[in-house]
Amino acid sequence: QVQLVESGGGLVAPGGSLRLSCAASGFAFSTYRISWYRQTPGKEREFVAGISHGDGSTNYADSVKGRFTISRDNSKNTALLQMNSLKLEDTAVYYCNAVRRLGGTGAQNDYWGQGTQVTVSS
Asked: Which pLDDT band holds residue 67 (cuts at 50, 70, 90)?
């Protein structure tokens, strides 16, 4: 059974920090690219940060670059999103995503967690 479970969300004041975790099971975690997305009511889900398999290269949305850091520990099947200097506009449900291209067929495996709420408010 494939599973991605996000945790670590909550209420935080502007300028504060929060660390989100994504715990994976049921698939070969170390071979998948891991990304974080976020979504607010009435808006499309948006990319936040991603980390590759292998060399662990990262990329970030411009809105979070310099404030958020994505990392992974393949030995623990876990990915993290460290969020610093949080702003009101960071309020959203944050989702963990795992993707792997399948050789030969052009298909992909694409897995999603159920999300964790982050609320930035004074």
From this structure: very high
